[in-house]
Amino acid sequence: MVSSAPSAGTAQGARDQLLDAAGAIMREGDQVDISLSELAARAGLNSALVKYYFGNKAGLLKALIEREWTEIVRSVEALMAKQADPETKLRIHMAGVVNNLFHHPYVHRLLLRLIRESEPAEADRLAAAYLRPLLDAYQRLIGEGVAAGVFRPVDPLLFYFTVIGAVDRFFSAGTVLRHCGDTDVLNEAWRDRYRAHLNDFVVAGILVQR
User: Fold this and answer.
1) Which segments in the chain show pLDDT lower than 50?
2) 1-55 has which fold?
3) Which contacts of 40-43 are long-range, i.e. CB under 8 A and separated by 24 or more positions?
4) Phi, psi of 207 (to 5 degrees)
C-alpha cells in the first residue's frame, strides 16, 4: 500500500507511466486487455499504484481511453474549424485516422468494449463524449461537401463504419498478414500504402462524378 500521496510532479509522472505502459502492451499484443503483473513490470512500478491512481484496472483503462480520445476529438474539432474545402478536410482526416490508429491501434476497440461493459448511464456518457463528436463532424463535413456540390449525400453513420471500421480492422491485421502475406509487421511503409489506398477508395466513392 502507498502510505502517503506523492508530490504532484511525481504522481503525474507515475500515472503517465502506467498509462503509457498499458498502451504499449495492448499495441504490441494486438489486444484490449492487460494483466496488472505485466503492467507493473513494463512500467517499472508497483502494481498497487493502479489502485492508488485509478481505483482498479477498469479505471486505468477508462483513463487511457479518456486521454487518447480527448486528443482525437480535439483534432477533429480543429480540423472542422479550418478554412479548407471539404475534400481537403476529408483527406486530412483520413490521414489522421490512419496515423492515430497506427500508433494506438487499440483505441476504438477498447472504447467499444468499455461502452458495452459499463452501466447504461456511463455507457451513454462515453458514447456522447467520444463517439458522438466524430459522427457530428461527419454529418457536418458531408453536408458541407454536398452543399458545395462535390460530395454525394452519404449517411454519416455508414461513413463512420466505412472509415473507422476499415482502419481499425487494418491495424489489427497481423494474423492475416502472417498467414497470407510475407510479414506480420505493420510498419511505416504499410501505413503509408494503406493511407493512400484509403484515400483513393473513400474519396472516389463520395465525390460527385463529373
Assistant:
1) 1-5, 7-9
2) Arc Repressor Mutant, subunit A (1.10.10)
3) 43/17, 43/18
4) -70, 145
